[in-house]
Every structure is written in C-alpha cells, then in structure tokens.
Design a protein that fits this description.
Layout lengths: L1 E5 L5 H8 L4 E4 L16 E5 L1 H7 L4 H17 L4 E7 L10 H20 L2 E6 L2 E7 L3
Parallel strand pairs: 1-4, 1-5, 2-3, 3-4
Antiparallel strand pairs: 5-6
Length: about 140
C-alpha cells in the first residue's frame, strides 16, 4: 500500500497519474464511495480523497483501521495488486473554531497515522514535487 499526501491543489493526483497510468480511480471528489476490496476491478487501485470519506463517515478510528486492513489483505493475495491512497493534509494552519471541524481534523489525522503504519511507501507532494518519507524495501 502507498499513501500520497500534501496540501490541497499541490499536484498529488497528477503525480499519481504519472506514476500509475493504468490505475482504476475511485474518488471522493467525484462523489464515489470508498469501495471494499472485493469490488476492485483492477490490480492497481487509487482511492482519492481520504479526508472527505473520513468527514462523511461515522466510522471510528478502529472501524477505519479495519477498512484499511481489508485493503492490505486484498493487496497481499496477489503480488500484482497495489493500492494507492491519496489524502489532503488538513492538519496545518489555524485550528478550526467549530467543534465538528476540529473533530474531523483529529479523526483524519488518526486515520492517516494508522494508514502510514500499514503502507510500505509514503510520499508528500508539495507544488508537484514528491518527497518520499517512508519506503520499505521489498
């Protein structure tokens, strides 16, 4: 599994499309819901908009971990399978005044921490340039 993060409109999607042109995209920004691995139709799947799915979901951190672990299991069944998660970093800047926005920001941060722990590679994209901050050699 691979996590790509960075600021809004910093080139995350473009960078992933360049690296994985064959991937099947599932995007929260297009109103699609996060699929479960059984529904994946391609060996390379991109799940874009993690922060939006966290916002729209009532899932707890533990429930999100189970979702992420299902994707990890799906990936491990076949060596040609690969999952790329894209999530905007919403942790920087001024802390929101509204409790619901603070809660969303906190839950997203926890989900990202759990996701990073499961991923073999993590890239941060700023202004279209990537920095690999985690890469496990296979």
């Amino acid at each position: 599994m691979h996590f790509v993060t960075g600021g809004a409109f910093n080139g995350k999607s473009k960078w992933v499309r360049t690296k994985f042109p064959e991937a099947k995209w599932i995007s929260a920004y297009s109103g699609e819901s996060e699929s479960f691995p059984e529904e994946a139709e391609a060996p390379v799947v991109v799940l874009e908009g993690m922060e939006q799915w966290v916002k729209a979901s009532a899932n707890s951190r533990e429930e999100w971990t189970k979702v992420l672990e299902k994707w990890l299991e799906w990936e491990q069944v076949d060596s040609s399978r690969y999952v790329i998660f894209i999530g905007t970093d919403i942790s920087k800047g001024i802390v929101p005044i509204e409790k619901e926005h603070r809660d969303w920001r906190d839950r997203t941060g926890w989900v990202y921490q759990d996701l990073v722990a499961l991923c073999k590679q993590v890239d941060v994209i700023w202004y279209g340039i990537n920095q690999t901050i985690k890469e496990e050699v296979q």
